[in-house]
Here is the input.
Amino acid sequence: MLDREVIQSRGFRNVAVNGQAVGFEVAVRLPYYRGIWLSQLRPGHLSVDGEEIREADISWIVNGTAYPQKDVTKHGDVHWFLLDTAVLSVKKKGGLAQGLHDVALDFTWSASYMPPSMDTGFGTRPQKRRLAIV
Here is the structure.
């Protein structure tokens, strides 16, 4: 079951390779009733504990496949269903320390029924949530 909040409490964890933390993940849900194609997604900003995460360090995992944040709008054939989470996978040497972290995220999306001249994006107000790494 999904949390009501965009930033999900489940799925916030460090990612390790060969026993070494190489980053972290945070799961998010889409607050839009139709779902979207990735070409409609307009990624915004992600920060943890006030530290802005560089776009080059973020990938969006949708339907089990990772897409670099800078490339998500190139994938008009990938659908993010409204009841599925997307996972933001972040490269960060050492991951995050155990304990509470303040996560902030914003993103928008375009609507397929709006003409391009009106494509200013729908979207989320900046989302903030305190999550724990255990």
In short: The chain has one domain: 13-127.
